[in-house]
Amino acid sequence: MDSLALILPADGQMPDLANTYTVQSAPLTYPSFVWDGQSLFWQDEAKQKLTVDFASPKQLWRFSKLNKAQEPILRALKWKNGEGQTVWDLTAGLGRDGGLLAYSGCTVTFFERNPTLQILLSEAIFSLQTEMPEMAARITLNPMSSIDHLKLALKDDTMPLPNSCYMDPMYPHRKKSALVKLDLRMVRDLVGDDPDSAELLSLAIDLLKSGRGMQRVVVKRPAKSEYLGDFKPSYSVEAPNTRLDVYVP
């Protein structure tokens, strides 16, 4: 991987990171990766910060309050306690849903094609190896486009498939952008609107119907939105603000 630009605090030392960085000197330029002495984040031209941390206080609080029997994503995946389910997270983004799945015992492969998010995810997984090693061991990052990976899987019937594929494509753009949280706005600025998400779902459904053991495809959608690509699901799991559309063979 090519060297990445990094900003360090004036009196800081180079931290132990997964990737190779070139430290910026004044005058500093943004956007850039920044190490503030405690964590790594991405900072854009407006000095807004984006980070991924699977063991942050907020995430640990979420995990501590998790009712696995009632969690909509786990219900959609037919999760069972102690079952070693494998999942391909086809649109990893900030890794929050995939991280929840890994915390719950699933073995998860993150697919993320955006270079900035790839770096943030890889650093978060690297950090997690110290903080929560068992959870970290259940996460793999694949920087390949999930569309390209599914096309390869369709051509190569010897490629092992997961129990499930999970998708959380970018939601339709809201006119009232203030309603969208800052980190999600920043992700949209980085990745755009996912115009090929219907193609991704179509490929996942083709794999599901290939008779090679994949059990379901789960798509996260806004609660009252149309089905992605007009593919009618087998059933849906409802949540307060979202809906999980489930496709089975």
TrEMBL record:
<protein>
    <submittedName>
        <fullName>Ribosomal RNA small subunit methyltransferase J</fullName>
    </submittedName>
</protein>
<dbReference type="InterPro" id="IPR029063">
    <property type="entry name" value="SAM-dependent_MTases_sf"/>
</dbReference>
<dbReference type="InterPro" id="IPR007536">
    <property type="entry name" value="16SrRNA_methylTrfase_J"/>
</dbReference>
<keyword id="KW-0489">Methyltransferase</keyword>
<dbReference type="Pfam" id="PF04445">
    <property type="entry name" value="SAM_MT"/>
</dbReference>
<keyword id="KW-0808">Transferase</keyword>
<dbReference type="GO" id="GO:0008990">
    <property type="term" value="F:rRNA (guanine-N2-)-methyltransferase activity"/>
</dbReference>
